[in-house]
Queue: 4 jobs
Job 1
Amino acid sequence: MVDAGFIASLLASSIRAGTPLLYATLGETLTERSGILNLGIEGIMITGAFTGFAVSILTGNPWLGVLFAGFAGMALAFIHAFFSITLKANQPITGLMIVLLGLGITGFFGRSYIGEVAVYINPIHIPYLSSLPYVGEILFTHDPLAYIAVILAAVLWFLLFKTRYGLEIIAAGENPEAADSVGVDVDRIRYISTLIGGFLVGIGGAYLSLAYAKLWTEGMTAGRGWICLALVIFSGWMPQRAVLGAYLFGGLDVLSFKLQATGVGISYHLMRMVPYVVTIVVLLFSVIRKRAAFGAPASLGVPYIRGRKQ
Amino acid sequence: MEAILEMRNIVKRFGDVVANDHVNLKVRKGEIHGLLGENGAGKTTLMNVLYGIYQPDEGEIIFEGRKVRFKSPRDAISAGIGMVHQHFMLVPRMNVLQNVILGYRTPSDPLINHKWVESKVEKLSEKYGIDIALYEVVMNLSVGEEQRVEILKALFRDVKLLILDEPTAVLTPQEVDSLFYALKSMTKSGLTIIFITHKLKEALKVTDRITVLRKGKNVGTVITAETSERELARMMVGRDVVMDVAKPEVEFGREVLRVEDLWVKDDRGGFAVKGVSFSIREGEIFGIAGVSGNGQKELEEAIAGLRTPARGKILLDGKDITKLGVEKRNEIAYVPEDRIGVGLAPSLSVLENLMLKDFKKYRKGLVLDYEKMEERAKELIEEFSVKTPSLHSPASTLSGGNIQRLILARELSRSPRLIIASQPTRGLDVAGIDYVRRRLVESAAKGCAVLLISEDLDEIFQISDRIAVIFEGEIRGIMERKEADYERVGYLMAGGLEVAV
Ligand SMILES: Nc1ncnc2c1ncn2[C@@H]1O[C@H](COP(=O)(O)OP(=O)(O)O)[C@@H](O)[C@H]1O
Ligand SMILES: [Mg+2]
């Protein structure tokens, strides 16, 4: 039955399903704002998911799991940064290499963890607020990481648009030569943005295994990394819009389960395809119309070499 | 007087090219020091070395009495050096204020103290007469305004030495005057300025002393008040130059080109040419002056047949050619602004580029008659003195001047009725400039109609019979050269309207 209760529970689970997307989208937004295109999100997310799960089992502390997932993400992002920033390599190719690396490593080491049970991150029901009708369920029954994600979006917005750091990050992504000419250390900015970006993407992965699905399986990110790439474009490289985008795609993801449960006669498999189809359409559009029309940083994916003849 | 800067024996190589070959430069405190030289002389390289963008291979820099080594622009900035680059270093999507403070820490750092910035900029504006809207997005500014932002950026950092790399290339004569005025007022308050140019007149007008570079070496430093255009030209080029191409007066014949109420769209779909009408007769050179980006590109492409006009008519010898393709406009020779992109097939050989439009003539069954083509190409290379390693070298390996000669050879040898020449001498050396202008004048004398589109007012005034000014896609006044003067043309180029007197 589709009624108010159904809608409320759908919205609540959209937020849960959207949170890992939000972390990864925010991370990639930061990275891309500085001019580095990291196509490796899928590989970084899966590495975060596995690292978080394994560390939680080994230490019994899921929060340590989340932290280490972030570090693992950072480590992969460092590889990407080193190749793209220091060696000026082709960024799409390095990114794809990171995807394969992440999927490969986690597939190999993760085999023995399949079916294991870790300590998870559980929702907290905020007293009083969570018992409000509908609104309570939608907004106040989540785990701490879900709230942190929203705060993070606000922080990132503030950082990018209200501080000198943001000015320098955006300038590095738009016109690195101009930034360099006024003494901004473009390479350093790009390194930091890529590393922090990788950290956030890693946490997005940990959220999947420790808070959302609460299990570990090989390849469990199931293309979410690619969805996040589309979400960055979809949100016009704006953290505040990434929140809506992530929840929307989270909603599309859960809708298929929910509808199946209510017995509505739409093919489950068809519904599962929707987020991916939308992703492909968004990516396709961004190729057909010039990327700049969407607000892409003008030097996204272009290595910066000081004094190179134009 | 005390020297603020001394560069000694600077050497900078790029592979085999020695861009700076033991260059010395001594700049006094409070002066405007001109750095003069032809394109490729090494002016920009020398200043990039000073600004920390390049590391010199040899030599040393003494700034304010101390030996310095700038590893990056950041070091140069903190020492008190500012540079306005030839290609502006702005972030188009940011506003003026953001561009000005990029890389700077305001008192509330890392937050941005807008009030503080505003008041500091206001003081600078008052002092130097540089007026600019702080919250305008740079993308929407004119080139002149962009330059003011660049200068403001430097002044904002309280520089002691300001380098301006070819600052006048993009300005109208009035804007040049107000720039010179601002520069003078800066030196009054103690700033030192290095002014890079390849234009003799400007160097003479605004500087106190001039250092001349030629082919990476320095030729010498002269006191502006004691030198002349002739002496500077000789230092710059290395021999006496006669720059006296002049358009002889001829009887004009029949009308060759007629453009009626032409409207042309640019790539973004807006109108770049708005209702332009003019005509050119046999033997006449019609010069269109204007700052780049005011519809010149769309206009020339429409007449050459590369862009379909939205409205209006183009008539060649009375025949309507508005809708004809390029290949049907054989009587038009086109020397485009974008020589390498439009004028050439850069990876094809010199031979193929010369014959590009004549392959049909040299068909031998299914293949081309290369022997005959080579014969003809050799004649052309001779006639137009194109310097090339061989007929079979890729055209892209030629120098700028020789690329232009190659294009002229191909276009002018086909006895055209109309020549469209757009920015034909931009970036060429003195000999190249002279050659191109001479050729255009000769072609006109033989009865061609010539449409000359140029930003260079000297060029327009030197060889045109009539002068028109284009501004934002409209022709703002057409005048006989005899009636025209720089001031009036400059005024129209800046968007001024003619008032009926
Ligand atoms: N980054 C670079 N790489 C290779 N060659 C360069 C580079 N910069 C300048 N050159 C070469 O050095 C010479 C001097 O150039 P430049 O300093 O730009 O001259 P100018 O500013 O006087 O026109 C030219 O031959 C140019 O091609
Ligand atoms: Mg230069």
Job 2
Amino acid sequence: MSMGNGAFSLYPLIPLTSHAKYRFPSKFAINKSSSLARICCSQNNTPQQQLNLSVLRFTLGIPGLDESYLPRYIGYAFGALLVLNHFVGSDSSSVTPAQLRTETLGLSLAAFSAVVPYLGKFLKGATPTDQKSIPEGAEQIFVMSQDIADNMKEDLAWGSYVLLRNTNSISVLISVKDALCARGYWNTPKDLSKENVSDWFRKQTQRIGFSNLKDTMYFQQAADSELKEMVPVGTRSLLVQPIPEAPERSSSQTENSKGFVLLASSIDYAFTDRDKAWIAAIANKFRGGAVP
Amino acid sequence: MEAGILRRLVVPLNPPRCRFTSRRRSIRASLNPQGGYQGPKPKREWVADWVSANDGVVRSLPIYVGGVSLLAVLFNRTISGIAPVADASSSQSRADLLTLGLAVTNILNGLVWLSIRPKSISVVNPDGVECRRIYHNLPASVISELLWAWESLSDVTCCRSLVVIYDGICILQIGFADVSDSNGGEPMAVDANKLMKGSLYNGVAKSGSQSYLANLSLYPGKSELPFLPSNTQAVILQPLGDKGIAIVGGDTIRGFTTSDQAWITLIGEKLDATLAKVVNTMSLTVEEKS
């Protein structure tokens, strides 16, 4: 009797708090050099092997206030004060050109400060500051085609688990030739029975034609407005990664894709370049083919 | 005081060797005679792409903008003939103070951005020979899974050597390995039993969780890993259940990010499940024969 077989298919629901980021209220500089002890300890403090990918951030300790947006708030506040000063602080007749120059400079600086946090999101080293939110009306499901090999079932269960846990996604759909696995939050119609859910997914994907994609497709924001019925409401970014055909089979014809992996997330710009590289590596697992 | 985002480890996020297989702005969906993709295509994200491409410029932008505005305010005050006194009595002074406040905000924000720039650390090419040794008695599906793990690690992370030991046997040794003096130019073999008696393995097996040696040269246990190239920079020791260990060697100090560590842990769990099944079936066959 095999012992490790059922391990991954028994993880039905994945708690979304496994991605919670910890904030340590601290006003002091953080020592940036990483030591062996610090990294080991930060991984040993949970009983199961859950890795807490915690990020240390400066914070004023006010809950709900995101400090990276501070320049924006300061820009708005000082800009408003400048306008107030112009109209209320002196009579309009006695406004000197020098003051007008200063005020123009001040207002353009305020506008720049307001834009600065938006630019900062795309710099390397920036972490997404929004928390993942659970879309309304969607329920967590775990559906897999039944008539496939056990090996494939285990791979699909593990693959979907890993993708949900290690990326910022809340829903994942893997479709490999005839096999299909959907996990996470989806807006399936309520009256469908369990067996028909995978058929519903298959119909939707055929309608949109995901299987015919050759390159990765990445919607970075507001994806739910364009792919309404399939993805849960509140999906902001969407990534579709085609699974390439094994190399030796495509020698005679153009490379067809064997399926795709679809990831949906509730935050903008959810997947960094490194995330996408790992997602492509997971998609390669389903490529199959003989040992090279 | 300005607050910002700080990464806990200063790690290179984009190593100079471009090994990512997918790019940020891939939006093409090609047509196919049988139907093709009919769904929507994503819009190009001009700002995001431009900022990522000009990272250095954008990082220093707030400081320059703030500094130039600061000087401009003082200059404006002097050439307008107003005494450079910082009192809030006239509306000109108030406007100047507000603008100065904004300039200082921008300078501080720029300093925070510069302080969180990932430090680029150079890659050190491993000093050894390529090798590829796989235990002979394994089913094809297990071999393809092991090779998939190696391909993923070497494509995405800075991993250049991978050794998998399970149940006292060296299952896989692939990538770069140190040259063995006694055997001519052959890659050095892994002595699984010796490794399993050593402190590195026992420490990892006891704690049951991954151990990341971010700078291997500082670590005295390096002598227990003679099969890795001598200038391996970083090593991750991932236990596979309680019977095995995977040793992942990288070519950059602190080259594995926290996300890489998480992925390696999960891949380790999968390999453990796969290898456990193999060991069970192999021991069952042995029992049947005897």
Job 3
Amino acid sequence: MSSDVLDKRELNTPETGGPKSKIEVNDFNFFYGTFQALYDLTLPIYERHITALIGPSGCGKSTFLRALNRMNDTVIGARAEGEVLLNGQDIYAPNVDVTDLRQRVGMVFQRPNPFPQSIYDNVAFGPRVLGRPKARDLAEIVESSLADAALWDEVKDRLDASALTLNPGQQQRLCIARTLAVRPEVILMDEPCSALDPVATLHVEDLMRRLSAQYTIVIVTHNMQQAARASDYTGFFWLGKLVEYRRTPELFATPKEALTEAYISGRQG
Amino acid sequence: MTRQQTNRLAKIAISLVAALVVLPTVFVILYVVYNGIGVISWEFLFTAPRSGMREGGIWPALLGTVFLTFGTAIAAFPLAIATAIYLAEYAGDNRLTRWVRLAIVNLAGIPSIVYGLFGLGAFVLFLNLGTSIVAGSLTLGLMTLPVVISTAEEALLAVPQEFRTVSLSLGATRWQTIRHQVLPHALPGIITGIILGLGRAAGETAPILFTVAAFYLPELPRSIFDQTMALPYHLYVISTQVPGMPLSLQYGTALVLLLVVLSLTLVATVLRTRMRRRRQW
Ligand SMILES: Nc1ncnc2c1ncn2[C@@H]1O[C@H](COP(=O)(O)OP(=O)(O)OP(=O)(O)O)[C@@H](O)[C@H]1O
Ligand SMILES: [Mg+2]
């Protein structure tokens, strides 16, 4: 990856008084067997900001996202090279406990996918397996997570109802609450709105904006308007490479690379 | 004949042949019911045979079959579940997996009389369990393993991958994921498999021949290390080994055995249908 992709001034790094990075990706390569899905990625992910990843289908956005909490580990033959530093610690170091990593780097998926259990049990699942709370604390965690996901008012009277009785927008917010319940530091979202209608989509974007005060958020999206509206930084991926990575308004207003320009204008026009 | 006529004819002919398959089943059941229903009574079901088995009931054999069915379940369950979990959740493409799969395929192909002989050698003699309910249950359990393992594996694989992914992404361990998000959803399917396996085990004669079954033992077993009578073997005995045996008793015994086996299959089928209907994904 060329150094001009990461223009330090435009990225507003700490040196220029900008935010501090939560995750540092250094010379990262990723392979599915012999197929290389990601090439030489080097980029920071800023703390308590929203970073959007855009790019055509198959360019490696999801792969990159899953590399950040090592969900790719479950793919047979998958292999990572290079560093991903979370708070300065390499998450690919041999002594890393992946369950601990995944608690710290949570994930929200494309399709709302609550467990076929009650609303309460969905949110409580994470804290329960992490072995934390007594019943009272658990109830508190469930309430605060649902409240943070802007769902508490809608479900507080039916916590025992099946999560599948919720509409898709509510289900997705439930999934966000479920992720919040384990108190992550980073939240990865892989096209979290692609199965939602426009109103539910705006609802989730609002929510992301509010959550970014506390959490570092990385979102993959196919929706240019969403990236432009809802993110602080945007990275454009192309065939496994990071082509351009800048502050969102600048990337959309004055893309430097011809590829970026073609992609965002193609998508917007 | 036009193409359309041939088409219609083919459909009719094929449907008729398919209907023929139903006939033997219905015929066998009706035949046994017709010939056996007459002797079914409280006394027949709940008293021991008398006068060299030519009179009285089948209680010790019926109870023996119930004991053996439970024993089989207890013997097969842990091994089958663990193997199925290994195959569905952990198995990589390695030598252990290949050996396990090969073993299961071969277990399924072994004739039941060979199980009987194996049970005699391994459980009765080598483990010194004697001719006993334990030895019989272990033998029957071994025999039902392949069915139970493959239905259990299927039930586990039917649980959406997504549940595992989400669970792991929340920081759950592999085992917590299996325990809390996979097994509960697969359990009805697993139980169905076990009951189907038991249905087969309850009707088998050969595996219990040398391992547990008593020729004529009016007393009920007092421990799991006792022998017991059992319905299939009792039926075999009274049909071939006892001269002057009233035919009606044989058919009555056959009817009870049939009912035991069919009701197990029925329970499994009902459970499976209900589970399919209730499934929410
Ligand atoms: N489990 C896998 N095994 C092998 N190859 C994979 C696997 N997952 C993804 N790939 C390949 O890696 C490349 C990147 O895939 P990825 O899913 O990361 O793309 P994406 O940018 O998220 O695409 P989309 O926008 O369609 O979600 C693709 O060529 C894809 O075929
Ligand atoms: Mg993707």
Job 4
Amino acid sequence: MDIFERLENVTIVGAAGKMGSGIAFLLAVQMAKRKLSPEGREKTYQLNLIDTNPAGLQNLVGYVRDQTVKVAEKSIVELRNLYRERTDLVENTEIVEAFVDEVGRLLMPTTAIEGAASSGMVFEAIIEDEKIKIDLYRKLQKMCSEEAFFFTNTSSIPITTLDKKARLDGRLIGYHFYNPPPVQKLVELITHGHTRPELVEAAKQLGKLLGKKLIPSNDIAGFIGNGHFIRDGLHAIAEVERLTKQGRSFAEAAYMVNRVSQDFMIRPMGIFQLIDYVGVDVFSSILKVMHRYIPGAGLKSEVIGKLVEKKVLGGQFSGGAQKDGILKYEKGAPAGVFDLTEGAYVAFDRSGPEAWTSRADRELGPTPEGWQAWKKMVGNPRKDEALRAYFQTLWSQDTRGADLARSYLKRSAEIAQNLVKAGVAASVEDVNGVLLNGFYHAYGAVTDLIPGLPA
Amino acid sequence: MKKLRKNVYMVCGFNTISLGTGRKEFHPKKPRPGLEQYIQEAGKGVIAQIPSASLVDECVISNFMAARFCRQGNLAALMPTIDPSLEFKPSTRVEGACGSGGLALYTGVKSVLAETADVVLALGVEVQNTVKAIYGADYLALAGHYATERKSGHAYFFPAKFSDRAGAYAQKYGRDRTRQAMAHWYVQAIEHARKCPKAQEHHNETKDLLAAGMTTPNPAAFVEELNFFDCSKVSDGASAILICSEEGLVRLGIPKEKAVLVRGIGQAQADLTKGPRDLTELTTSKEAVRKAVEMAGVAVKHLGVLEVHDCFTITGLLALEAIGVVPPGEAIDYVIAGKTRIGSELPTNCTGGLIGFGHPTGASGVRMAVDLWSQLTRQAGDCQANLAADRSLGLMVSMGGNDKTTSAVVVQQAS
């Protein structure tokens, strides 16, 4: 069974979720294009969208439709060619509509898991809970053919565990898309000792078809992406605690570390904004999984536990807007921060030189010379040169902000190197690849652009 | 008709801003003026220069595709919205794709010659930002022959048609030099537009324009031989001007030196169902120019300022050759040498042309007449070219479709 045969009948379980929706859209487009090709014309294609939430499934159909319109508009040159024999379709408008219909016809939304029974490929993007995932895979194992391949979007649970407990016999692979799947180029490919070689081959072919960059990771809880991100987040929390002990409020400390990790480190967003984007609760559950599989490595956080307890959760509204988490948001931009000690949000205040946020900014000091905002930096045609010069000054500057950034960057490099030592990543280049493609960093964790990093 | 049977003048021109991407005030998701607002702004801009709208005898409105871009037809009936005194006066809508504006001028001139009017308000308008470029491409493609060309045509129909011309021209006269000349045409268009506050590219701050112009085309996403900088943009805008007899000027109380005199006019129509005779030549434009120049009884060497229809950079080069400024293939050197810049030998498209000023399709021909009028009456501000005494004539060529519907006009300052 080659990848194109498998594409004839595909299932996504957890299709109405954020990740499931994106994966559904990506696959639907490829399936529809295949259907339009000479090889696919006589075949029937079916994409089973399975979720426990019927309203979510209805939204999903609308989402796929809207996204398909956009992708059809963008790939109109290719689509006109695919439809060249359809004399009834002349204008771009007609071509776009026809393609949207084609995609729509593939979709089989259902709340019944039995929909997966005849699929050659099953993608799973349900809640990050080991027990629930195992239950699901056990059901799938019974109803699906022995040829079916399974792709899990787990970002932390070891694949071996799921594969073994559901007796999938090497037919499950870790296929970790980044959020949002249609935009993010990265897919972490997680194999283990028993993964079937044909499955690895299919996963690679699919990656090519979807235009994704696959980076291999070993099957150790958290893999490369969360292996770095979770520890990166824990470092930030430890810094907040340290600053708090020196007499600052929790809100001030969290604000400072967030600003350093965004501005001073030229990242797309500050660490607490990123944790909010992922979801504080999701961060917490990944942390628990990692702690269980990698005990004694300090993979726990009281602060995260307390935040979840207080329902400071982050995540997104169904429309995509950011929910309040460690930070409070106004029109998508941070406007305040949760003070864990007070149990309430404190708004940023720069109303005067003595307002708390102004004071915190003053204490951090100005961003070093050569600084450019992340967006400008990634678009800079001479990015490496600019970064090297910037880090040079960062390393020589004696301000609180520069100091926090230096120790943060050192820690990030150390995490990356440890991931290689622990056998999670094959090389620091793979860790860098994940950060560059999945987290949109402007530079890798271990890089000669930063002076003074441990080699 | 070998010569005009009476004097015809153009005066009191007005251009609106050409609005679209590039203008700071343009935001695709924010409300913008619509078709009627543009008609009214341009019409009132003209009327404000004369004692009363009631002095206008007749209206001509040119537009290409409002029926699809704006879902509005019967545009002649929108002219009375400019001023109540225009109600019940004759009004005609003309259409010849992107050459519609030229037809408005031609029609206005004929009314004056026919003595059915002494003052004609000629107005061109187009609003195109109502749909995404990919759907706009469908509407604009209707300037080609739908039955035989559209299905086999490219998603971006007209860019592909002119890409074919660019490819043929490059093959004949050298690929590298052609690309360079096209890039230089782009640089000139933007630099001229920067001098004109109403131009769509007025706010363009790109530092290395030549590098942008030299961008390698990407056929997977667009077309073989053109990059985005080779193309005029999607524009909203309107232009209007009065076409008058001598009696008309007197009636308006406008001294002759404020007007331009139409020395020659030519219109040429090719067969829509047939492809171009020669991809490297604008044969129909050439014919319209021949008629206009012959009627004017002048030679190309007397031309001091040009307005050409550079919907694409390659079209700018081809237009220079169609006019006879240079022999075939030599537009390359002429443009690279900067001879079409303001301050050089033959200033061309002094407000930026279709690429720099913008291309509200049905308005462009009228816009050219407005710009020639302001040049020849020395009202062009920062865009003003120096006109030598022996090169005091202006020529414009308006073109619709793939060199199908063309009009040329030769004007000089009246005295």
